[in-house]
Amino acid sequence: MAQINKNYLKLPGSYLFSTIGKKVREYGEANPDAEIIRLGIGDVTQPIAPAIIEALHSAVDEMGSADTFKGYAPDLGYEFLRDVISEKDFKARGCNISSDEIFISDGAKCDCGNIQEIFGLDNKVAVCDPVYPVYVDSNVMSGRTGEYDATLERFKDVIYMPCLEENGFMPEIPTEVPDLIYLCFPNNPTGAVMKKADLQKWVDYANENDSIILYDAAYEAYISEEDVPHSIFECEGARNCAIEFRSFSKTAGFTGLRLGYTVIPKDLTTGGDELWPLWARRHGTKYNGAPYIVQKAGAAVYSEQGRKQIEEQIAYYMGNAKIILEGLKEAGYSVSGGVNAPYIWLKTPDNMTSWDFFDFLLEKANVVGTPGSGFGPHGEHFFRLTAFGNRENTIKAVERIKLL
Ligand code: MLT
Q: In b/e form, how buried is each residue of 206-217, taking b as 16+ CB within 10 angstroms?
């Protein structure tokens, strides 16, 4: 008899954004006249930049001609893309990351979820609380955690690092030493950033304790302040303890196109074993690569025109962030984030639970956000709004919230 992977049964409910999607759909069906503004899931709204569209078109044409047609992509991704990433995302920032340490994929979510496969089941995982649910859920699915404790709203055998208002939503180094440490900066969901000196402390800690840091830098393009590292490899010693994930989704609007990459230094080892060959083996076995046309589009992100156009797009979203931040402050909300990240993290009014505030906002303002408790128990009484809406809707949403 076939048996299921019982670890899946430990997961309570559905994936956070699926639950929200369902609730909003039901509300929309019951209230067909409601003009719902979606600032929940971090999905972009602006069209792909013209320089990228041009690259897509020309790559599509190449696929239609026998002498330029491409079949399977190389295992790690096309060199033209890995080379430009290595130059522009890393070497230009003083990080010594070579093209063959970059694995092209169809997005950071899959890589963040899959990376745990190359680690043993006995590894102890540490995550921030609140946290992007993929890190925890993927470890639950593979059996690296205990059961879910509904009272604590936590899985057993996971080290949770509370990110509280009083510490600027920064995790503190845990007392129990983790084997795998997930960090995401600029942070989803709080929008907080870690200064370089602080990230260096985590790198030093990981090296001293033989831990591996799994660093999600999906939002690095939104950093506006100095002294905030764009890559963990800006820190000394990170090559010996870190893996980094990057995404084109938020950087260049590829949520529908799908493109990302993972960096694993060739000299990164744990217990004497190299990690690069394991991920290469997994990549080669389970994945056939991002489409050629999408990798061509990715390379166009680094062209002069592409760069300029996506900078304008990021500035547009960050303009939205400012409108939300300032509008909510005026309305008396306690808010943070939104300066180096496209997420605004607010405290719910009158100590409302995050889900009560979700319902309140949906019903009274027809605005969708994300309940903080969906990211972990320390997200309770907080709420996330994204800056990825269009300008008109963002202004309208803020106006509606101010009237509540
Ligand atoms: C989010 O809203 O947290 C993100 O869009 C989720 C993701 O990137 O997968």
A: bbeeebbbbbbb
What CA–CA distance (Å, rounded) separates 114 from 347? Answer: 33
**Cβ of 109 less than 6 Å from ligand 1:** yes
Residues facing 37 on adjacent strands: 367
| Mean predicted lDDT score pLDDT of the chain | 97
CA of 134 to the centre of ligand 1 (A): 9
Q: Which helix (H) or strand (E) holds 238?
A: none
Give the tens place of pLDDT for each residue, 216-256.
Answer: 999 999 999 999 999 999 999 999 999 999 999 999 999 99
List, for residues 161-199, the tens digit of each pLDDT value: 999 999 999 999 999 999 999 999 999 999 999 999 999
Q: What is the pTM of this model?
A: 0.97
| Rg, Å, the chain Cα set | 21
Mutate-to-test residue for ligand 1 from 15, 16, 128, 132, highest number of ligand atoms within 8 A of CB: 132
Nearest CA to ligand 1 atom 3: 42
Q: How far is the CA of 187 from the centre of ligand 1 (A)?
A: 11
**CB-based contacts of 28: which residues, under 8 Å, 6+ apart?**
34, 36
